[in-house]
UniProtKB/TrEMBL annotation, chains A, B:
One of the protein's GO biological processes: fatty acid metabolic process
A Pfam family the protein falls into: 4HBT
Chief site of localization: membrane
Organism: Gordonia insulae
Domain (Thioesterase) ranges: 120-189
Protein name: Acyl-coenzyme A thioesterase THEM4
InterPro entries, sorted: HotDog_dom_sf, THEM4/THEM5_acyl-CoA_thioest, Thioestr_dom
Length: 218, 218
């Protein structure tokens, strides 16, 4: 399948690469937030822009083909650095780091001004973005990976920018369909609830459940 | 309402500010994409990171309060530079620029590697993010602004990263509820369809329909 890669990077080297990736990812994230809320004069913006363009020119000296894809290393680790929610080297991603328990997956994270929709609130579509990812994780964790078939979000109240929590669990399965539910909550309580149906792809149906549940491990 | 501001910026100066804003926004967008797909050595990454951090330090010399909010200028223009889908100075946003016709709103745009979910495909949650915005625009264009009550996405096929089109229209209204529908399509056809219910806020119910339909004009 195109976009999936297998690699053989020595474990210590991969760990170092991940530190470097996270470092530059976090630097660009800080720049993204600063760009949204800056109030400096035009001269300062132009000066900053020169430095930004110079950094881009360095990073563009060599690039991978089209997108990061998903890379499986020989030591068992998986890299999805380009993922819009979790990618450690994707500045669009917060990134959200998920944890898994017996019956649910969750994450606690913070969203800054670059995720705004209504003033001071998280964009409703960003809420959907996070929920799509956490519901998908719940499906993977239950041994039922798949692509989203349908996703429904019910918005109960505005989600203030800042700290929040998301969690998801499996409601039920019906054949190749897995029904997941989840929510996002802040200090104000539950802000949005979601239901998602995940369809197990043909290639996964032939794997046993133990192998399927390991697919999501980062 | 907090986060909404009225301003009196001379029209010519505001136009200049918008050019500067778009310029730095586009520069950071290019950096975001380069960060995702770079394949340069660690030394080059560290060098780029120094430039990035220096740019951030300049932009952080002065900042607005917490988030950009929505700003209404005395010349009738509205600024939502922090919006996660449309904000010209928000590097998380592509940005998507919408057009409006008699009975629908639409946009044509391109999504790069920073919006990846499954390898080579747009993240299902980014699909939801775009659809939430275009459905909301359809509601505003019809004179029925509101916050999203519910959003449902049906994913028909993967959306390849690259060029795509989105459109939305009003299906019907029931009292304070507006039912909008929309889709995202590529050269492969319709990739996702959405339905959204928008609830008109109390403050808007008291405005006449002409004033309500102007609220969304950028």
């Amino acid at each position: 399948m195109s976009g999936y890669f297998t690699e053989e990077i020595p474990a210590e080297e991969l760990t170092r690469q991940m530190e470097v990736a996270r470092g530059v990812g976090d630097s660009v994230r800080a720049l993204v937030a600063a760009t949204v809320v800056t109030d400096v004069d035009e001269d300062d913006v132009i000066e900053a822009q020169r430095l930004i363009d110079a950094a881009t020119a360095i990073l563009e000296r060599r690039r991978i083909d089209s997108s990061f894809g998903i890379r499986f290393n020989s030591d068992g680790r998986q890299r999805n650095w380009g993922n819009a929610v979790e990618g450690i080297r994707n500045p669009v991603a917060p990134p959200v780091e998920f944890e898994a328990g017996d019956d649910r997956v969750w994450a606690e994270f913070s969203l800054g001004p670059q995720y705004e929709g209504p003033p001071g609130l998280v964009h409703g579509g960003v809420i959907a973005l996070i929920l799509d990812q956490v519901l998908g994780h719940a499906a993977v964790h239950a041994g039922a990976p798949g692509m989203t078939g349908t996703l429904s979000i019910r918005y109960r109240q505005g989600t203030k920018l800042g700290s929040m929590r998301t969690e998801a669990w499996i409601d039920r399965t019906e054949g190749v369909k897995t029904f997941a539910k989840g929510q996002i909550s802040t200090a104000d309580g539950i802000c949005a609830e979601a239901e998602g149906i995940f369809i197990m792809p043909r290639w996964a149906r032939e794997l046993d459940i133990d192998r399927r549940s390991r697919i999501g491990d980062a």
